[in-house]
């Protein structure tokens, strides 16, 4: 580790680059301890609830660090957020977020005071009750939509309602009713099923927290072709996540599978031996093993060989030659697929149980002898 250190730059990870953040919006500032980092950039990245971030200008030249609570400009009033990134990396994050050149960048007013934080906590405490009441109102109005989350602005003057709907929803009457019921400015934002799962969170079948709730920010489309490339059985119950959509993790390894599949022979290729013709049946893509069957429709006389051996047999067939078998070397006697035929049914018995049975049988034989004498 010391080989990569210099006098001007620190070694390893900087604790200053890690701060209080929320799940998938985490950003590590790897230039936090770089003394020579440029400081002419006054842009600051501020994180709000769940999947919402914003970029603001530090016109007052406040001494801000990662994790500071700040009051920022909003419309109307102000909002409360957490500083998640400062310095030259903010411009790169803005470029990654694909912000348009003419986007308005608002200001940071001040560091959050105690009064601001108290009002902020009061507004956040209203979110759960507001969400439940808004769902009832939407149901009474007969709207085909589901309100999944509510986010209050830091000063309590505005509330964002996140909803899911299959089609277009005319919620003009809903906005009027919500404004009268909660006495705040209403903003409606439509999200997808994946975004809702990320906001709610949960545990996946892998035993870990959902990817959409921890680190996934861009939800790319997932198709059944990704499952076919990886030879995954098309079972809807296993392929669907908690959002009822195809799991995002189907896309994680599909590129590796597609690259490895190019090193395997085509499914249409038939291999000829002196015993007959063998047809492609299945393949272990990552290990490069291919299983061939002597029957086109069912698995019969299965032989598993490497992709290199399959190409070697194919080359011999093109030259008019036929090997005696697909395997390069003589194979052992094929093993039956019947588990009871492979092993003894008493293979799980331990020595102690066997001793008990022998002792019990000995006592029973002694009783039988005494009965005969009597």
Provide an overview of this structure.
The protein is an alpha+beta fold and 374 residues long. It has 4 domains: 2-111, no CATH class; 121-195, K homology (KH) domain (GMP Synthetase, Chain A, domain 3); 220-253, no CATH class; 263-335, no CATH class. 29% of the residues lie in helices and 18% in strands. The strands form 3 sheets. It has a 5-stranded mixed beta barrel. The protein has a 4-stranded antiparallel beta sheet with strand order 9-10-11-12, covered by helices on one side. Helix 3 (127-140) packs across helix 4. The longest helix has 23 residues, at 351-373. Mean pLDDT is 82; it is low at 1-10.
Strand-residue proportion: 15-25%
> What is the residue-averaged pLDDT?
82
Task: Work out the number of β strands.
Answer: 12
> Helix coverage percent of residues?
25-40%
How is the main sheet built? Answer: 5 strands, mixed, barrel
Query: pLDDT under 50 segments (min length 5)?
Result: 1-10
Shape verdict = elongated
N-to-C order of helices and strands: EEEEHEHHEEHEHHHHEEEEHHH
Q: Record the strand order, biggest sheet.
A: 1-2-5-3-4
The Cα radius of gyration reads: 33 Å
What's the end-to-end separation, in Å?
88 Å
SS summary, helix count: 11
Secondary-structure content class: alpha+beta
Q: How many structural domains does the protein architecture include?
A: 4
């Amino acid at each position: 580790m010391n080989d990569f250190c210099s006098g001007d730059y620190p070694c390893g990870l900087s604790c200053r680059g890690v701060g209080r953040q929320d799940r998938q919006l985490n950003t590590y500032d790897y230039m936090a301890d770089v003394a020579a980092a440029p400081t002419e950039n006054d842009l600051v990245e501020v994180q709000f609830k769940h999947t919402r971030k914003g970029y603001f200008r530090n016109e007052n030249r406040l001494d801000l660090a990662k994790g500071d609570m700040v009051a920022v400009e909003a419309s109307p009033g102000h909002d409360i957020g957490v500083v998640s990134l400062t310095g030259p990396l903010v411009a790169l994050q803005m470029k990654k977020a694909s912000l348009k050149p003419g986007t308005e960048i608002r200001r940071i007013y001040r560091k959050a005071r105690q009064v601001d934080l108290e009002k902020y906590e009061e507004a956040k405490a209203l979110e759960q009750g507001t969400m439940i009441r808004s769902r009832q109102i939407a149901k009474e109005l007969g709207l085909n939509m589901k309100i999944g989350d509510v986010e209050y602005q830091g000063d309590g003057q505005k509330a964002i309602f996140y909803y899911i709907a299959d089609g277009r929803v005319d919620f003009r009457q809903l906005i009027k009713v919500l404004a009268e019921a909660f006495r705040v400015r209403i903003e409606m934002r439509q999200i997808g099923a994946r975004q809702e799962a990320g906001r709610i969170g949960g545990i996946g079948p892998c035993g870990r927290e959902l990817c959409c709730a921890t680190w996934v920010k861009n939800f790319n489309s997932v198709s059944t072709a990704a499952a076919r490339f990886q030879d995954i059985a098309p079972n809807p119950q296993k392929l669907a996540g908690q959002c009822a959509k195809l799991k995002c993790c189907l896309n994680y390894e599909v590129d590796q599978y597609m690259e490895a599949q190019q090193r395997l022979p085509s499914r249409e290729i038939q291999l000829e031996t002196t015993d007959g013709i063998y047809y492609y049946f299945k393949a272990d893509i990552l290990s490069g093993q291919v299983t061939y069957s002597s029957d086109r429709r069912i698995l019969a006389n299965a032989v598993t060989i490497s992709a290199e051996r399959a190409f070697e047999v194919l080359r011999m067939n093109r030259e008019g030659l036929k090997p005696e078998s697909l395997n390069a070397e003589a194979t052992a006697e094929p093993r039956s697929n019947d588990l009871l035929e492979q092993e003894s049914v008493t293979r799980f018995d331990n020595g102690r149980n066997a001793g008990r049975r022998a002792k019990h049988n000995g006592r029973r034989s002694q009783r039988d002898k005494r009965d005969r004498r009597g």
